[in-house]
Amino acid sequence: MVFHVLNRGNDRRAIFEGGGDYEAFLRVMRESQDRLSMRILAYCLMPNHWHLLLWPHGDGELGTFLQRLTTTHVRRWRLHRHSVGQGHLYQGTYKSFPVQDDDHFYVVARYVERNALRANLVSSAEQWRWSSLAQRAGGQHLDDPPILATWPVPRPRNWLSRVNTPQTDRELAALRMAVARGQPFGGDVWQRRTAKRLGLEYTLNPRGRPRKSPSSRA
Prior knowledge:
By secondary structure, this protein is an alpha+beta fold.
């Protein structure tokens, strides 16, 4: 099953302050991938957060990969700055949600790969070097970048154009809900089935306090 994963810097502070920081994170991604055989489908590193689209081979692999990735990254980040023991780098545990491998996958992949464009850091998404889109387009020049796996659905020929096209407000609202609640992102039947399988039924419940019945108001 495919998962979108996100983590942010503590208090939304910068994680990446220059090219060296981005390259160091990508090296840790590749090392973790080599050790644990994680399929990386898409990614985008932003100044104070990152997005990954991952496809584990089996249960438990997602958590193992992300634990190695984040703990190694934090240790090296702190050692490089001589700041070991000086608080948290990340805001907390990563956020994730499962993604259906149909058209919903394209929505999430576009969301990931156009992140820098949406934030107005570049004029076209492939110009952002620290993304899978740039890597596939040959705009990233690392000696040993992460290996990008074949997608579970065909990658459209016009993908670059699609990524550079703004997503609808409805798509963005649904994606942000999935990020905030860890809610499975897919069709209704798949969403309910996946939530039950993964113990995520609570993510589908309406927010807020339950409405009182007329008898309970008396």
